[in-house]
Design brief:
Elements: E1 4-8, H1 14-24, E2 28-33, H2 40-48, E3 56-57, H3 63-77, E4 80-85, H4 100-125, E5 131-138, H5 149-169, E6 174-181, H6 188-193, H7 195-198, H8 209-221, E7 230-233
Parallel strand pairs: 1-2, 1-4, 2-3, 4-5, 5-6, 6-7
């Protein structure tokens, strides 16, 4: 059976690009969103490039659904060689207006869903002694900006999880990486909502999803004597 790359949060930009990149690399891409129907354009794209893609719908915050998802991939598609967690939940709000319900939802999307992805991937990879687990991070993973208390809290938790997993699973042959995306990405949202920022695309001032995805594939192929745990990607003009 051909090995699989599962991408939790395979959106129209970065997540989709990551799925397509791993399909080109020879793995069966298993993109996951809340509904499989939303993945039809990505599935068609990967097929047109000669790759294999099996889209699946699942709620990454639901433990039973995540267990069933990983069981299904292992049984019907192939051993999971790569697991990517790519859910964002970047939504600002003043701490004065933040609600417990909204804070909990963002934490579930950033942290709980990341935990379920990482745990289920590790449970399948550990007996084989190999595999790659990659977590997509953000500027908020490193510092909390004004108005981003919920998002920064969730992303800080995800970073801590990735560090803990890397220390535990590295000796067992599993490469755990945490990729900080620091800057605007070439998406429809940035184009429509932040046209001035999007204009920087002409001078390579925003991140190209395809270039982001290439780094995920690179991390998967790193030899274990020189593994990268935390990688930050930003345009040349982004301040840090």
């Amino acid at each position: 059976m051909t090995a699989a790359a599962i991408i939790i949060g395979a959106g129209d930009a970065t997540g989709g690009a990551i799925a397509a990149a791993f399909a080109r690399d020879g793995l069966v891409a298993v993109p996951v969103r809340r509904t499989a129907e939303a993945l039809a354009p990505l599935t068609d794209r990967i097929a047109s490039e000669g790759g294999r893609c099996v889209p699946i719908g699942a709620d990454a915050r639901d433990e039973d659904q995540m267990i069933a998802l990983f069981d299904r991939v292992e049984a019907d598609i192939g051993p999971i060689e790569v697991a990517v967690f790519n859910i964002g939940a970047n939504s600002p709000m003043s701490i004065l207006d933040e609600t417990a319900r909204r804070y909990r939802k963002i934490w579930e999307l950033c942290a709980l869903a990341g935990f379920l992805t990482g745990r289920e991937a590790a449970r399948r990879m550990a007996p084989r002694g190999r595999g790659t687990i990659l977590f997509t991070a953000a500027t908020a993973s490193l510092r909390g900006g004004a108005g981003f208390g919920a998002f920064a809290g969730g992303k800080h938790a995800l970073r801590a999880l990735a560090q803990s997993m890397a220390r535990e699973l590295g000796p067992r042959g599993i490469h755990v990486g945490h990729i900080v995306i620091d800057g605007a990405i070439d998406t429809d949202f940035i184009r429509s909502q932040f046209p001035e920022r999007y204009a920087l695309k002409a001078e390579d001032g925003i991140l190209n999803p395809e270039h982001i995805a290439a780094n995920y594939v690179m991390l998967h192929h790193q030899p274990r004597d020189a593994w990268t745990h935390e990688l930050d990607l930003r345009p040349w003009g982004e301040k840090f």
